[in-house]
Write a structure and sequence with these properties.
CATH class: Alpha Beta
Oligomer: single chain
Largest sheet: 5 strands, parallel
Number of domains: 1
Distance between the termini: 48 Å
Radius of gyration: 17 Å
Structural class: alpha/beta
Number of helices: 8
Order of helices and strands: EHEHEHEHHEHHH
Strand content: 5-15%
Number of strands: 5
Shape: globular
CATH superfamily: HUPs
CATH architecture: 3-Layer(aba) Sandwich
């Protein structure tokens, strides 16, 4: 019988790859997708598609509305940054940072894991090609793992030793894509854009679009997701700087 693992599945490229890695390691996938009030809500349906394609054993959709707190371009009426080079680790934290998001998502995943029970929690955090989010850093993930084993009944009673698994944390976007392709991930099912247009097409200019474009270009692969048209397509066709 397969051991269960909780996988935070957003519908994006990274989380799909992490889910495929967990599946390849022999886990039964118990996916958690959180509707936190994100403006790019198309990713929720992408998560459903990815979960079905990967054969998740159970897929929980949870609503935790972070919009009342504001202060993020992903949940409030703040412009999404466009046309910039994504921030290197240690640089300026962009307006697309959602306050305490990964802390909240991991806490929900921990509650899910404790009730299954599952020892392993997978998250698609990345500290190489990312946009400067502090809650994607290895030290944060290690601290949360420590907290998980101190602050749960299962952890205190030593019935479960929780592990926060972030297998992508030290990989470039190109390495992530190559790993996913090798595991059979269908990236056409995934979604990355923070600010889709009225037609439902990715904008091509936000940090998420630019990181995705950079990753596929450096991997020497064509992104199978919905293609762009017009000026944005021409810009994305140029090699990454």
């Amino acid at each position: 019988m397969q051991s269960p693992a909780v996988v935070l599945l957003s519908g994006g490229l990274d989380s799909a790859t992490v889910a495929a890695i967990a599946r390849a390691e022999g886990f039964a996938l118990c996916a958690l997708t959180v509707d936190y009030g994100q403006r790019h809500r198309v990713e929720l349906e992408a998560a459903r598609r990815v979960g079905q394609a990967l054969g998740v054993a159970r897929h929980v959709f949870l609503s935790i509305d972070l919009r009342p707190f504001g202060h993020s371009a992903l949940t409030s009426a703040i412009d999404v940054p466009k046309g910039r080079e994504p921030t290197a680790p240690g640089g300026e934290i962009p307006s697309t940072y959602v306050p305490a998001r990964n802390t909240i998502l991991l806490a929900a995943a921990l509650a899910y894991a404790e009730t299954i029970p599952a020892a392993d929690i997978f998250i698609g955090a990345n500290a190489v090609d990312y946009s400067g989010y502090p809650d994607c850093r290895p030290e944060f993930l290690a601290a949360f793992e420590h907290l998980a084993n101190l602050g749960t009944k299962a952890g205190v009673e030593r019935r479960v030793r929780f592990r926060v698994r972030a297998p992508l944390v030290n990989l470039s976007k190109a390495e992530i894509i190559r790993r996913g392709v090798a595991l059979g991930v269908d990236y056409a099912l995934t979604w990355s854009c923070y600010d889709p247009g009225a037609s439902g097409s990715p904008c091509g200019e936000c940090d998420a679009c630019r990181l995705r474009r950079k990753g596929f270009a450096e991997a020497g692969l064509v992104d199978p997701a919905q293609p762009l048209a017009g000026p944005a397509a021409a810009r994305l066709a140029r090699p990454a700087d």
